[in-house]
Amino acid sequence: MLRATFLHLAGIGPATEASLWRAGVRDWSELARRPEVLGLRGPAAERLVRELAASERALADGDVAWFGRRLPDREHWRVHSSFRERTGFLDIETTGLSPYAGIVTVVTVHGGGATRTFVAGDNLEELPAYLGRFPILVTFNGSRFDVPFLAACFPQLAPPPVHVDLRFLLYRLGQAGGLKRIEQRLGIGDRTGVEGVSGLDAVRLWQEYRRGSAPALERLVRYNRADTVNLEPLLDLAETELVRRLLPPGDGGPGGPAGGPRPEPVGG
Questions:
Q1: Residue of 203, 178, 180 lying closest to 191 (CA atoms)
Q2: First and final C-alpha spacing in the chain
């Protein structure tokens, strides 16, 4: 999807991008060959070609932040498929709903071929350095909960260049509600061994662990890991559906038909 994205280019908004797709332009290289499809010639066309060349370099260099700065937050999901191994899925457990009335107890990060859990009082202080290897962060409601909590816990923690909040991405697809309800509705995710465990139970399990129950911590960690690992198939499903809805069908393969409506002038 990233190579079919043009929103990061100067003067191109959703309407112009959609008209490019309808005209069969679905790759940076195609637009670089045909800047006239946007009505551009001379210096304006040359500037566009330079921007497209910069996009190619950023992709080749793995410069996730370059795209994060140029894409609207709600379109950060488009970056993930090109940088899967550099994507970290994250979920946290806390003792309260506010960073001023609770602490972070357990955090799991899933990505890069591994799933690692951090526990307060054990190895939680290692989390910021570990998160630094993932320029793409995926959460569920993390922009309003997980990220503010972690920022309060670790003031030195830099925000990720790209953050995909699945709560709002799935809402665009008509999937409202909490994570577990959406999982059940879509038939996605594995909660073996922690069926029926809720966020309130997570607080209780932490309290039991602090009173000396090792099994309580084991169950809490399993619950947190399920919350985290299940985000990956949900993102894959959301991406597939969004691409299906955004990109019109065409007979010319990924580039679509050679003809089609003329795109609107740059700036739409």
A1: 180
A2: 20
Cα distances (angstroms) measured from residue 16 to each of 6, 9, 112, 268: 9, 11, 35, 5
Which amino acid type is present at position 156? Answer: Q
Cβ-contact 91, 138 below 8 angstroms: no
What's the whole-model pTM score?
0.89
* Of the candidates 142, 233, 141, 228, the residue with the CA atom closest to the CA atom of residue 187: 233
d(CA 211, CA 156): 31
> Taking the domains of the chain in order of start, what are their residue ranges?
1-61, 84-242
Pairing of strands 87-94, 136-139: parallel
Q: Residue 162 and residue 65: Cα distance in Å, rounded? A: 7
Task: List, run by run, the mean pLDDT of 10-residue segments along the chain (268 residues).
Answer: 96 95 94 93 94 98 97 97 97 92 95 97 96 97 95 92 97 95 93 91 96 97 97 97 87 38 42
Q: What are phi and psi of 116, to 5 degrees?
A: -125, 140
- Structure letter (DSSP) for residue 268: -
Query: SS3 string of 143-186?
Result: CCCHHHHHHHHCCCCCCCCEEEEHHHHHHHCCCCCCHHHHHHHH
* Alpha carbons 72 and 32: distance in angstroms, whole number: 22
Spatial CA neighbour of 194 closest among 215, 169, 209, 213: 215
Structural tokens at position 154: 């670790």
CATH no. of 84-242: 3.30.420.10
Q: Are the folds of 1-61 and 84-242 the same?
A: no
Rounded CA separation 179/169 (Å)? 12
> How many residues belong to the chain?
268
CATH number of 1-61: 1.10.150
